[in-house]
Design a protein that fits this description.
alpha+beta; four-stranded mixed beta sheet
């Protein structure tokens, strides 16, 4: 039961897909019906939805908060940086590794180093198109500009691959949020949910939902006189 009670702490939603008439969805439908009330009692704030349709492919999905760093690590680990001729794209590999070393904490601190000016303000280039030529701003934001421009250039190189390489890798990583369950039995469905839970523990950061009002009153020492 312990893993079931932790679902809402690491996952924002669980979506099940299946066909009520198809034998291929029988295991998923059985597991869902057998576990729904228990899971809902243990995780009252977790949306658990069943979507059914004729010949719908049985699957379970969730939402994982993958970051740009997670995507680049995935591309490096799966050797997705390739040139059109199939050779390893060393320039994009090195750019991805350099991007992963970016000191974002320093960038956040240095961003506000010029009093009254925010270089990340929306439409700042339209409001003040020549701000980079201002000597005072240049001096105040020297470190910020150095680090941020380097990160932007590295990302530009990373995304320059052929055949929508970056976009295809992004879609492939997002597919990790889904587990197909064609002809799976209840045990396989449970393992699929546990797998998504482990991904949620690794990648998701869900803020606890505190109650808006007191539902139980426990008297203190002074109240018991």
């Amino acid at each position: 039961m312990s893993w079931k009670s932790s679902l809402s702490r690491h996952l924002s939603v669980l979506r099940f897909f299946g066909c009520t008439e198809s034998p291929s969805s029988r295991g998923l439908m059985s597991w869902y019906k057998s576990n729904y009330y228990e899971l809902k009692a243990l995780n009252p704030t977790l949306p658990m939805m069943m979507r059914t349709g004729e010949n719908s492919f049985p699957a379970v999905t969730t939402e994982i908060e993958f970051t740009t760093d997670d995507l680049l690590r995935y591309m490096l680990q799966t050797n997705r940086f390739r040139n059109s001729n199939g050779t390893v794209a060393s320039d994009r590999v090195e750019a991805a590794k350099a991007y992963l070393q970016t000191d974002w904490e320093t960038i956040r601190q240095e961003r506000m180093s010029s009093p009254g000016f925010d270089p990340e303000k929306p439409f700042i280039d339209e409001e003040k198109p020549d701000w980079r030529d201002d000597p005072k701003i240049q001096s105040d934001l020297a470190l910020f500009l150095e680090l941020k421009d380097a990160a932007d250039e590295q990302m530009k190189i990373v995304q320059s691959g052929p055949d929508k390489e970056y976009e295809r890798a992004e879609n492939a990583l997002l597919m990790c949020q889904r587990v197909d369950l064609w002809c799976a039995g209840p045990a396989e469905v449970e393992r699929a949910v546990q797998h998504l839970l482990m991904l949620g523990k690794r990648f998701n950061t869900i803020d606890p939902q505190y109650r808006e009002y007191i539902t139980e009153y426990i008297p203190g020492a002074g109240d018991m006189d």
